[in-house]
Design a protein that fits this description.
The protein has 424 residues and is an alpha/beta fold. The chain is built from twelve helices and 20 strands. It has a ten-stranded mixed β-sheet, sandwiched between helices. Strands 14, 16, 17 and 18 form a four-stranded mixed β-sheet that branches. A two-stranded antiparallel sheet has the order 3-4. The structure holds guanosine-5'-diphosphate. Residues 8, 13-18, 40-42, 298, 329-330, 332-333, 412-415 line the site of guanosine-5'-diphosphate.
Length: 424
């Protein structure tokens, strides 16, 4: 059976939780392939509000095996806490599978992120301070500790000792902090290891076997394409790769397994924190999008920057991910605008770009080229089929398809599952 990759096409917060929940219904395994406990899906289970940051939301379906693949960095303390919260809602969590190749977030990662972000002051990236970036940095530097190391005490101690020598020197000499105690870390992590052991498995072999057995596998990205370490607006990016290609590297399956690549795209654009954002609207319209769309960070409550739909960004996301279809969210937020704007290109220094400019400096100076399109005044959250939508809304969806060259397969008009309108 072919695999499906589902990912965000903008700067995150595209409504992935809702889209993944809708698509998960027909899946047997749901795989998280990058990031750490910084993703944040809000789901309602048994009347309780659950904030899943690391575990794939597939855990809430009894028929789904949730998998955390190699490319995710894991804070074992956080993972066990999250599992406990899910278990307390009455959900069976023993189906979770965790790759032994996942890198561990260690106490010094959290400590170092705190002090280095403070050190950078005004230039700090505004990270979530959960040690995720430092854990990925150590992975690349070949000094990371992995989940499998937890099950060999001698190796764990040895590796930790080597790393701590450097980390403690940085903490004490550069930042004037207290050193971390190796024995205390070993003791804590080995205790956690016992609790983690039942979940740990060779997830690549598991997924390969599942695909051979005709089961449906969904690979779920966190954050969004424009936050990709390589393909995003570096350095205002996350420390891993949300793009489709990385799903394969992380899960350990080949490209021929994948048939569908679903891009989740919000009907307008938002961005959290610093970095270029050509279609940002600092006026009343942007304000209106933010209020109607409730564009405030789930964890921080921080107001998101809002702006018009950007076809250049989506064309880029379609290209670098090989998108085969689009899941368009939050169309209901655009109700009430008589006219809408769609950015079809950029102007930089008198030159027009229909594609993302090849140099970051050009992107920073990019002025959006807009086309106007008729909006619609009525609320659309009651629509149950695509045909129920007013002419303006249908026209808007069709224009996006035309500008990007990828079909929209589902339009979302509200947070509930039934507010998903399949097309065709
Ligand atoms: P994610 O991290 O990509 O899941 O994005 P967010 O954390 O920003 O979640 C999106 C928010 O928008 C959640 O509160 C959803 O319930 C809500 N949402 C998702 N789809 C729609 C939609 O089509 N319309 C509206 N009004 N809200 C939606």
């Amino acid at each position: 059976m072919p695999a499906t990759i589902v990912l965000g096409t903008q700067w995150g917060d595209e409504g992935k939780g809702k889209a993944v929940d809708y698509l998960a219904d027909g899946m047997d395994l749901v795989v998280r392939y990058q990031g750490g406990n910084n993703a944040g899906h809000t789901v309602v289970a048994e009347g309780r509000l659950l904030k899943l940051q690391l575990i794939p939301s597939g855990i809430l379906y009894p028929h789904i095996t949730p998998v955390i693949a190699d490319g995710v960095v894991v804070d074992p303390r956080h993972l066990l806490k999250e599992l406990d919260e899910v278990r307390r809602t009455g959900v069976e969590v023993s189906r979770l599978r965790l790759s032994g190749n996942c890198h561990l977030i260690m106490p010094y990662h959290l400590e170092l992120e705190k002090v280095t972000q403070r050190f950078l002051g005004r230039n700090a990236l505004g990270t979530t301070k959960r040690g995720i970036g430092p854990a990925y940095a150590d992975k690349a530097a070949r000094i990371g500790l992995r989940v499998q190391d937890l099950f060999d005490e001698r190796i764990f101690r040895e590796k930790l000792e080597i790393v701590l020598r450097e980390k403690n020197a940085i903490l004490t000499k550069l930042y004037g902090r207290l050193p971390l105690e190796g024995d205390a870390i070993v003791e804590e992590y080995l205790e956690l290891a016992g609790e983690l052991r039942p979940y740990v498995t060779d997830t690549s072999a598991l997924l390969h076997g599942a695909l051979r057995a005709g089961r449906h596998v969904m690979l779920e990205g966190a954050q969004g394409t424009m936050l990709d370490l390589d393909k995003g607006t570096y350095p205002f990016v996350t420390s891993s790769n949300p793009v489709a290609g990385y799903a394969l590297a992380s899960a350990g399956i080949g490209p021929k397994e994948v048939e569908r690549v679903v891009g989740i795209v919000k009907a307008y654009v938002t961005r959290v924190g610093a970095g270029p954002f050509p279609t940002e609207d600092l006026g009343e319209d942007g304000e209106r999008l933010g209020v109607r769309g409730q564009e405030f960070g789930t964890v921080t409550g921080r107001k998101r920057r809002c702006g018009w739909f950007d076809a250049v960004v989506l064309r880029y996301a379609a290209r670098v991910n090989g998108l085969t279809e689009l899941f368009l969210t939050k169309l209901d937020v655009l109700s009430g605008f008589e006219r809408l704007r769609i950015c079809t290109g950029y102007r930089v220094d008198g030159q027009t770009f229909e594609d993302l400019p090849p140099h970051q400096s050009l992107f920073h100076r990019a002025e959006p080229v807009y086309e106007g399109i008729d909006g619609w005044l009525e609320e659309i959250d009651d629509a149950r089929t695509f045909e129920d939508l007013p002419k303006g809304a249908r026209g808007y969806v069709r224009r996006i398809e035309e500008l990007v060259g990828v079909p929209v397969s589902v339009v979302s008009v509200g947070p509930a599952r039934e507010q998903s309108l399949p097309i065709g």
